[in-house]
Amino acid sequence: MKKLLFLFSITFLLSCSSDDEPAQDSTQTFLEKFDGSGFVDSLGEEYVYLYNSTGFFMKSVETDEDPNFCISIKVGDQTIGGESLSIEILQNNSTTLMIEIDYDSPDDDIEVITYTALANGNISADYDGDSTEIFSPTSITFNSLCN
Length: 147
Prior knowledge:
By secondary structure, this protein is an alpha+beta fold. The chain is about 15% helix and about 45% strand. The protein contains 3 helices and 10 strands, in the order ααββββββββββα. The chain has helices at about 1-15, 30-35, 140-145, and strands spanning about 40, 45-50, 55-60, 70-75, 75-80, 85-90, 95-105, 110-115, 125, 130-140. Strands 4-3-2-1-10-9-8-7-6-5 form a 10-stranded antiparallel sheet, with no helix packed on it. Strand 5 and strand 6 (about 85-90) form a beta hairpin. The N and C termini lie far apart (about 70 Å).
């Protein structure tokens, strides 16, 4: 009888336990999930800020420059660091943001960067399949780095 009562108690406890974390909405896009979030690379030299906006969807800071190199990135034609380029969002789903950068250089290079949400809250950035970088959440704001 004690074994039956013990088994019933375990079953009851397991069925009553709840998940304290709210369920992730899989219908949210990558930019909706991370709207206003900032991330920093493992060396603390590159920061990425994401926005679910019709204007700039990303801001980036490189702190290994003096002064910091700060850019705002939008869809379409733009000039960044004196270089003309065009940016297109190829994919923006619940786990992935894929962007294509078409450089108007003499070689007319195209680069694809794929940002992926990781289970631990970090994001990875894959650069054309050549290299991958991991970014961790940061509370340091874009404005504090780019005044």
